[in-house]
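Q: I'm writing a short explainer about VRR-NUC domain-containing protein for a general audience and would like to include a description of its predicted shape. Could you first generate the structure from this sequence?
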Amino acid sequence: MTEQKIQNEIILAINQRGHRLFRANAGKVITKDNRVIKLLPKGFPDTFGYRKSDGKFIAIEVKTESGRLRSEQKKFKAFAETQNILYGIATNVEEAIQIIESE
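A: Of course. Here's the predicted structure. Afterward I'll give you a sentence or two in plain language.
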């Protein structure tokens, strides 16, 4: 299964549980007329949102079973683990639910 398909399944399942999760676009894009549009910083997780019970910030990096974190993603992970947020790496819906609802 592709990372995109896993991500779509996670977003749908989490939102059905009442939390809010959105797709994040990181990096930059260049338009047809050569304008640069900066998006979220490199390394920002694939999805972000908030938990329904308390509004706590959620950041989930989505990977396939064989996927590995890139350097920028490792830096964000190290930062996130020092913050009071729900952060984790998920390869399927069950792992994403665990990240959000285990606390």
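A: For your explainer, you could say: Strands lie at 20-23, 28-30, 36-38, 47-50, 57-62, 86-90.
Q: Perfect, that's easy to follow.
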